[in-house]
Amino acid sequence: MTEALLSMGIEELGLNLSEANIAGLELFLQEMGRWNQVHNLTAIEGEKESIRLHLIDSIAVLPVLREFLKAQNPAIADLGSGGGLPAIPIAIVQPEWRLTLIEAIRKKTAFLQHVRGKLKLKNIEVLSERVENVALQQTGQFDAVISRAFTNLARFLELSLPLLKPGGLVFAMKSKRADEEMKDVCKDDWRLLADEALFIPNLSVERRLLVLTPVRKSLVTP
Prior knowledge:
S-adenosyl-L-methionine binds at residues 80, 85, 131-132, 148. It is built from nine helices and seven strands, in the order H-H-H-H-E-H-E-H-E-H-E-H-E-H-E-E. By secondary structure, the protein is of the alpha/beta class.
């Protein structure tokens, strides 16, 4: 599968992946394909489509994340992680980052736990919980929150806010509908730091990454 990964443009992302990174990504895809036959984790099937729409789509966000995440070991929550996208590919390539995968569907969290053990990913935690419950338990614990096709932007921001540390960041992976979704975001509550077009080799579908941060409200003294 290595040749397929490289030929489909993973090198063009400029991430300087190691052999261990490539091996980890390959194993993740293999396990996803194996589990998908029984548990229907994703509607996307076939090696080429999985590489393009799962792996490359997920790690294409890394240059932007690296630019904005200044902490050496940032804590990142992936909301509605599903089959582990984008969190598992990110965790493979960035072993020093700490990722918490939040997913309410048990068959999917079973897969995530399996992959965690199979790939020996000590930098991830899997929570089989609704995001709202995690927000109550881990308020203000994360440097960043990320999601890929979890819910609409306004709802994603609402769910992310209690999880964030002061000055925390939200990374929203979106398509061409991002402009439409931004209209529903209150500009008094959120500041758009970046709207980056993502380069996905061999993929014609538009991908964008929005980076937002909550607006700190000044205290009004009587």
